[in-house]
Amino acid sequence: xxxGRLITIEGLDGAGKTxxxxxxxxxxxARAVDVRQLREPGGVQTAERIRELVKDPALQxxxxxxALLYAAARAQLVEEALEPLLSGGVWVLLDRFVDSSLAYQxxxxxxxxxxxxxxxxxxxxxxxxxxxxxxxxxxxxxxARSRARRDPLDRIEAEGESFHARVASAYAELAHADTxxxxxxxxxxxxxxxxxxxxxxxxxxx
Length: 206
Known about the structure:
By secondary structure, the chain is an alpha/beta fold. It has helices at residues 17-30, 45-55, 63-87, 98-108, 113-124, 139-148, 161-177, 191-201; strands spanning 6-11, 35-39, 91-95, 131-136, 182-186. The chain has a 5-stranded parallel beta sheet, sandwiched between helices. Helix 3 packs parallel to helix 5, helix 4 (98-108) packs antiparallel against helix 5 and helix 4 (98-108) packs across helix 7 (161-177).
């Protein structure tokens, strides 16, 4: 059986990752692709419990502890869901993966991208995305979208402008360094145009 594909969707909060993932899942299903949509942190019960910790604005979580918690959730997701699904020929659309930790903890929390990369290499057992869709949006615009939602801001969303600027800069650097895997998509487009751009970015894999 041919191995499935791991497609990750990255970007700042408010970029529209979940909306695109849902539309892309429907589009791939219509093309007879067996696809599963998951999120990070989360996707399996243990990782969802960790998600509650790292997102809770009432908790104080240090930068290193935060990076370790995300890596732990990722390790469980890989072992319990990603590897079995991919081995079974299923495509997985994953809302965030390692690049998020590189950008948010490596750059945003100033832990160092390479240090966080090594941590996640261990956590994932070396699993890498086949293709990453990076939804690009100005940090201020993304934050405005996040605030417009009815849900209260989580710990990460509530960080200041300089934090989100570092994250955006890190994403741009990651994309520049890996143009084959990471495809950049303008997140200010209408949803149907974003979907078309995403399908075009996956064309060689379909």
